[in-house]
Design goal:
The complex is a heterodimer of chains A (257) and B (429).
Chain A lengths: L5 E6 L5 H7 L3 H9 L1 E5 L11 E7 L5 H13 E7 L1 H5 L11 H8 L23 E3 L6 H12 L11 H8 L4 H4 L16 H4 L16 H10 L6 H6 L7 H4 L8
Parallel strand pairs in A: 1-2, 1-3, 3-4, 4-5
Chain B lengths: L3 E9 L6 E8 L2 E9 L6 H4 L8 H6 L6 H15 L6 H32 L4 H7 L1 H22 L8 E2 L2 E2 L5 H5 L2 H18 L12 E6 L10 E4 L4 E2 L4 H4 E5 L6 E5 L4 E2 L2 H8 L5 H9 L12 H22 L15 E9 L2 E9 L5 E7 L1 H19 L5 H13 L5 H4 L3 E7 L1
Parallel strand pairs in B: 2-15, 6-11
Antiparallel strand pairs in B: 1-2, 1-15, 2-3, 4-5, 6-7, 7-8, 9-10, 12-13, 13-14
The chains are: A alpha/beta (257), B alpha+beta (429).
């Protein structure tokens, strides 16, 4: 019998939510387990299989000195490396500290910050090693995750769209909350993948999936201004889970920079 | 056995997050025992400063992918308290419904995927599924029912988008909730099935002697509201938390550890059950008794039963809410920001969760304090482990290490919340 492809799941600085999406695949998880050897997935199993691995899924950002070394080891042991989630792709919500100083944030939480081992910034995996693909989302979408695993294991290109949330709203038949209800919405600059949930629940998109393939934050700033948003509102809205993504980092309007 | 012995568990598996365990034994006595949490700190409380009062609901969800609703609803209620608003009626019922979904998925995850493999001798659920397919499928169905509930009410299961300060962005229609009835009825049978199945497991002896702390409410099993109660008679409002509980920092952990007036205490299912089992629905209480539970339970190995009881309670409560549901006139009540401070506690699946926010007059956050269940349990978990090691000195290192890992997993620690993964490091010199 041919050897089963070996899958590994790694965690760096994160909330575990993207790994949980894999455990939430429920029945598909067991089906997946028939087709691959889940060699390393500490949250799911005490069995720890040594590398090399055919596919590594990496959750989380690089936020402490030890992880700078660890991600290099993971890369060396992995034929393909796919990052999952906003932490791994853009540094995550914890990358909000990149806009200030570590000293300031650490002193606000811990009485003895000197006992901690933290890097000045929280950075994406791609800032440290070459990655084969980034799957976006906070959290990643379960169907997209299964698609990516299946595609990599079968050596084909995964089908993951790079267009904006607007396309998903249209497909879903949701009336535009920005135009019709004058609600601030990040949908026009945000990558599709969640299924445009927020507008369907009567709120503007808040950018969980990060920048779409082509974005224009100045154009969105103009649209926000037309519905009465104040200067700085867009920049503040972009300072979320994908704040450190290059397209979002500088904000969209001037004052809050 | 004379001399020194050291046991080391490098990566404790089947927990949420990253930690390690070090034990040093000298002349058959535990000289040092340390649960290390080396999850990199994420500094949420600092990052919340300067944000608006409407933002912590979305931001604090990201502390934990397994219990985001606990963070969202505690944040919302603390901010509402700061602004002098209490959300009641159908909106509060919807919040409790969403919280039931989180308990169901989180407990099903722990009972079947993380905890049960310890009792049955498997590395994980995939191995366990080969020999126990019915049990594993029952667990996955339960988890799916919880996720489904969170998707309908919350918009999605991980980091729901619908909760907000004052209620929800959109209240579901009756018909939207009606689709939950079939899966919840199945889940209720599966929760009963869980109890019958788990009652036949083999439970090692262990007794927690820490003070038990949980919310208590005169009319209901504690989930989303109540006063802070303890087995030693504590009875406090959320706002009095600081006066009694102290957070301090230890060198080996990126979590802050908590004590109650200098004492070790335990939060979570054992505490909730032991303090409030008389508030379970009568037939849930009967099912608990049938599974061998008395009115109190202090054996952490038996927490798998208590989680089963709580899943049954959550299913029944959720069904009642869904059946009686009438959509509110508006999906949220207006909350006008004002300068002030507000605190709230709720029962996350892993135990008491505390949030406090101070706002300025425009509703910007001046300071935030968040105390998650796992950091509160760190000392109680270490006390359990010390007892397990004391009773297991005759065991070879590998078995002792495995026993200790079980001792950690009994409490379903969420190291992601506490700051995250475990390593056991037994040093026998």
């Amino acid at each position: 019998m041919a050897r089963l492809p070996r899958l590994a799941v790694w965690k760096f600085s994160s909330c575990d939510g993207c790994q949980l999406q894999l455990l939430d695949c429920d029945d598909e998880l067991l089906t997946l387990a028939d087709g691959v050897e889940i060699a390393y997935f500490l949250e799911a199993s005490s069995a720890v299989g040594r590398g090399p691995y055919d596919l590594s899924l990496v959750e989380g950002s690089i936020a402490c000195p030890a992880d700078v070394e660890r991600i290099q080891r993971v890369r060396r042991m992995s034929r393909r490396l796919v990052t999952i989630g906003a932490c791994a792709a853009a540094g995550g919500i914890q990358a909000l500290r990149n806009f200030t100083t570590l000293r300031e944030v650490a002193a606000a939480v811990y009485p003895r910050p000197e006992l901690l081992s933290s890097l000045e910034t929280s950075t994406p995996i791609s800032a440290h090693v070459q990655v084969d693909m980034e799957l976006h989302g906070c959290p990643v979408d379960r169907r997209q995750l299964l698609e990516v695993i299946a595609a990599f294991l079968h050596e084909r290109r995964p089908v993951v769209p790079g267009h904006s949330v607007c396309v998903e709203c249209k497909a879903r038949g949701t009336t535009c909350v920005l135009v019709a209800r004058a609600m601030p919405c990040l949908g026009p600059v945000t990558r599709a993948g969640c299924g445009a949930i927020c507008p369907a629940y009567g709120r503007g998109c808040y950018g969980c999936f990060g920048p779409a393939e082509s974005t224009s934050t100045p154009a969105l700033a103009a649209a926000w201004e037309r519905i009465g948003a104040r200067s700085g509102d867009l920049t503040r809205a972009l300072r979320g889970v994908n704040a450190w993504a290059p397209e979002f980092r500088d904000g969209g309007d001037d004052d809050a920079r | 056995m004379h001399g020194e012995r050291s046991i080391r568990v490098g990566d404790i598996t089947r927990v949420e997050g990253e930690g390690a365990l070090h034990v040093r034994i000298r002349d058959d006595r535990v000289e040092e025992l340390r649960l290390d949490i080396f999850e990199p700190p994420r500094y949420f409380e600092a990052l919340l400063r300067g944000r608006t009062y409407l933002e912590p609901v979305d931001i604090t969800a990201r502390i934990c992918g397994i219990c985001p609703v606990a963070y969202q609803l505690t944040a919302a209620q603390a901010i509402e308290a700061a602004c002098g608003v209490v959300v009641g009626g159908p909106l509060r019922e919807l919040r409790r419904l969403l919280y039931c979904g989180e308990w169901l998925q989180s407990h099903a995850l722990h009972v079947y995927l993380l905890h049960a493999p310890d009792f049955l001798g498997y590395d994980g659920v995939v191995d366990m599924a080969r020999d126990h397919p019915d049990a594993v499928h029952r667990g996955l169905r339960l988890k799916k029912a919880g996720n489904r509930l969170m998707e309908v009410v919350g918009g999605r299961a991980v980091h729901p988008i619908n909760p907000r300060v004052g209620g929800f962005h959109r209240a579901p229609e009756r018909s939207e909730l009606a689709v939950l009835i079939d899966p919840l009825e199945q889940a209720r049978e599966d929760a009963l099935g869980t109890l019958r199945w788990a009652a036949g497991l083999d439970f090692p002896d262990l007794e927690v002697d820490a003070e038990l702390v949980a919310l208590g409410h005169p009319d209901e099993y504690p989930v989303d509201r109540g006063r802070i109660h303890s087995s030693a008679g504590l009875d406090l409002e959320a706002g009095e938390f600081d006066a009694h509980f102290t957070e301090s920092q230890v060198p080996h952990s990126s979590a802050l550890v908590s004590t109650l007036r200098g004492r070790t205490y335990l939060v979570g299912p054992l505490a909730r059950y032991s303090l409030s089992s008389d508030h379970l629905l009568p037939d849930v209480r009967a099912a608990a008794a049938e599974a061998g539970l008395g009115p109190h339970c202090r054996n952490p190995f038996r927490s798998i039963l208590v989680r089963g009881v709580e899943m049954l309670q959550a299913c029944k409560e959720a069904l009642a809410i869904v059946r009686d549901y009438r959509p509110p006139d508006r999906p949220f009540v207006d909350v006008e920001p004002r300068a002030g401070e507000g605190s709230a506690c709720t029962e996350a699946p892993r135990g008491l969760l505390f949030h406090r926010y101070r706002l300025d007059e425009e509703g910007r956050i001046v300071s935030a304090t968040i105390v998650p269940p796992t950091s509160q349990n760190q000392l109680a978990i270490e006390a359990d482990l010390r007892r397990l090691v004391d009773g297991g000195l005759a065991l070879p290192d590998e078995e002792l290490a495995r026993l200790c890992e079980r001792g950690v997993r009994n409490h379903d620690p969420c190291i992601s919340c506490a700051a995250h993964f475990l390593r056991l490091d037994v040093d026998r010199g």
